[in-house]
Amino acid sequence: MRIRQLLVAAFMVLLVAQGAWAESLTVKGSTTVLPIMQKSVEAYMKANPDVDISVSGGGSGNGIKAIIDGTTDIAMASRFMKGKEVTLAMEKGVYPVPFAVGIDALVPVVHPTNPVADLSDTQLRDIFAGRITNWKELGGPDKEIVVISRDTSSGTYETWEEKIMHKDRVFAGALLQASNGAVVQAVSKNRYAIGYIGYGYLDASTKALKVSGIEGNPETAASGKYPIARYLYIFTNGWPEGELAKFVMYLLNPRQGQVHVKDAGYVPLY
Amino acid sequence: MIRMGFATCAFTSIIVLALIMIFLFMEGVPIFDVYPVQKFLFGREWYPTADPPDFGIFPLLVGSVCVTVASSAIAIPLGVMTAMYLAEIAGRRVRAVIKPIVELLAALPSVVIGFFGMVVFAPFLQDAFDVATGLNLFNAAVMLAFMSVPTICSISEDAIFGVPKDLKEASLALGATHWETMWRVILPASLSGISTAVILGMSRAIGETMVVLMVAGGAGLIPDSIFDPVRPMPSSIAAEMAEAPFRGDHYYALFATGIVLFVFTLAFNVLADQIAERHKQVGAATL
After folding, report:
1. Contacts of B139 (CB under 8 A, 6+ apart)
2. pTM for the predicted model, two decimal places
3. Minimal CA separation from B100 to chain A, in Å
4. CB contact (8 A) between residue B214 and residue A84
5. What is the pLDDT of residues B61-109, one digit of tens each?
6. Do the bridges between strand A175-177 and strand A146-150 make them parallel or antiparallel, or are there none, so unpaired?
7. Which residues form the signal peptide (chain A) (predicted)?
8. Which chain B residue lies closest to A61 (C-alpha atoms)?
9. Would the CB atoms of A190 and B240 count as touching at under 8 Å?
10. Which chain B residue's Cα is nearest to A150?
């Protein structure tokens, strides 16, 4: 976790402790959407000092579960709700309302020193299914590939499974990490690792691979050329009202929240 | 009146424990209606969200056992010897410095230790041993040893310190050296306390979640070497519990994993009790 995220979290704990009188909202879920939410919440709370918004990650599955259980006001998700989850929500009398907030390119990443720069989607599938196990087969050094995947609660994992793995399973030897940040950490510390992250987490510590010759970035994701793009969502329980509605409107506003979507490295929708 | 108060406290904790146990079994057992026990315990495939899912926890179980054994192998000698040193050899001044430092280790939040393992120790392991990944069994064992050393050390030290003075003096008076006294008299005399310390330390290692989640690598494989990534049971429970649909098969399977973990820890404690009982020091004569 980055120091800044920790500081924000600590700051929020203080805020919650200090003012029970203030309007308070909670946001949980996808670590892919997290950077957008943190930037937006910081700016929103600056403009509205009497509102407390606490944000935490944990993965899309956790966010969606929290909205169904009523333990959060907003769920962040890097995938749409599954049929099973909708059924569960209905049974509990929760009516989840989705808002798309941006588009993300999911990028495969390797260590910056890795000479491999481009992989086809079949190659990626074979790597993650454990059929290609050495970088030599891909034009790299004669070293074992260390495959890093997200755990099953991640929307990023589900997108990867849907768009790359198809019917294959990610093999049991893959290292599972709990957040985008952890994948970045693991890949940046291991010269023979490969992982995948939301575009917003891409920085100099890892190197993005092209997929079948197409670079994953906001432009190619928006135009539909890049094969592993997906929408980012937030969900509320029922149509938002009061402070919640104001905050959601803020996120969707082209001159407010959507600017943060762009700052976080994703594609704004409006 | 005071007696009543204490009795109430005692019974409350027993009742709470019983309720938690009942809950654990209630939520875990239903998985066996759809997935046979045999396959659950000895299945090699853990794909809880696949369709159809596989709930074989054998690799997780082996991962947990390996991590615990490896971390104990590091922590027990380290903890007990530190305790011996502090209680018997170190001067009062040295002791006053070292003891709080060791105990401070226990105050480190597990997430900090996990982070250290992830960003500092993992790359070091990769370079030093030329292994594919530093996020592995050995890394987890070392980090867990960090966490259990203070427990083992401070409880053992109390036990060693509690050995009656006359035992030691008698031994020295018979002409035994300080070393012989420590090894042959003080250690056996405090074995009951030390075994409790060791078991508490091991329980901490087997149940610890955050560290294994961060540094064990999370691969559901049966490890071939100490440098293979593993996925211990608590790490699976922590990573997946929040997403598992309430009262779905995955949820039941995670609780069943919890039962297995509970049985393990219980077995440990019973064992500790046995050892403590056998080596109980009731007077100078039992040595």
Report:
1. B117, B121, B122, B125, B215, B216
2. 0.78
3. 27
4. no
5. 999 999 999 999 999 999 999 999 998 888 889 989 988 888 888 888 9
6. parallel
7. 1-22
8. B243
9. no
10. B218
Q: Chain A: give the shortest CA distance to residue B219, in Å.
A: 5
Q: How far apart are CA A100 and CA A30, in angstroms?
A: 13
pLDDT recorded at residue B285: 53
CB pair distance less than 8 Å for A189 and B239: no
- Rounded mean pLDDT of A157-166? 88
Q: What is chain A's length?
A: 270
Domains of chain A from N-terminus onward: 24-102+231-263 (3.40.190.10), 104-223 (3.40.190.10)
Distance from C-alpha of B133 to C-alpha of B223, rounded to nearest angstrom: 13
ipTM, two decimals, is 0.75
The 10 Å CB-count burial string (b at 16+, else e) for B257-276 is bbbbbbebbeebeeebeebb
Question: Which pLDDT does position B286 carry in this prediction?
Answer: 52
Q: Exposed e or buried b for every residue in B190-202, given b needs 16+ CB within 10 A?
A: bbbbbbbbbbbbb
State which residue of chain B sits closest to A174, comparing Cα positions: B219
Indicate the helix (H) or strand (E) that contains A148.
Answer: strand A146-150
A148 touches B218 (CB < 8 A): no
The minimum CA-CA distance between B51 and chain A, rounded to whole Å, is: 10
